Amino acid sequence: MHHRLSAGLLIEQNDQLLMVRHVLPGRYDFWVAPGGGVQGLETLAQAAEREVREETGLTAEAGRLAYIEEFHQPGLRHCKFWFIGRVTGGQLSADAPEAVAEHIREAAWLPREALAASTCFPLLLRGDYWADRVQGWAAPRLLPLRAMDFW
Questions:
Q1: What is the DSSP letter of 145?
Q2: Which CATH number characterizes residue 48's domain?
Q3: d(CA 51, CA 134)
Q4: Is pLDDT above 90 for 93?
Q5: Mean pLDDT across the stretch 26-33?
Q6: The 3-state secondary structure of the chain, one letter per residue
Q7: Would residue 150 count as lying in a domain?
Q8: Residue 51: which domain range?
Q9: Which residues form a coiled coil (predicted)?
């Protein structure tokens, strides 16, 4: 079994979260916070910031580590580190070659209600995230191991 480290940012603005929509007709259509695999000697935070830029056109800064997510698919085990982030510049777009290659069709700010009614990842964005943010993420939270729904 292979292992993959990845990182992402949970960025909130005006009570909405920055999300990207992955669509591969006939296989999947879901929303996820921006993030992806660590490359070379990047730190987890650097990887998360790069992924936001590639997937959304925005520049961002990683803050505190909020969640550690474990999931698997056949032959591959993932460990993803979710940081709380903030936008520092750029313009929202899903047109970068890296986004197109990953079947990202849209980048958008989604309100809590839209997340609750959609297929979105990490799953806690449909509920627990909103309570956790009130608590302030005193320590990173390890999420339960789950099977990856799409690959």
A1: P
A2: 3.90.79.10
A3: 26
A4: yes
A5: 95
A6: CEEEEEEEEEEEECCEEEEEEEEECCCEEEEECCEEECCCCCCHHHHHHHHHHHHHCEEEEEEEEEEEEEEEECCEEEEEEEEEEEEEEECCCCCCHHHHHCCEEEEEEEEHHHHHCCCEECHHHHCHHHHHHHHCCCCCEECCCEECCCC
A7: no
A8: 2-139
A9: none
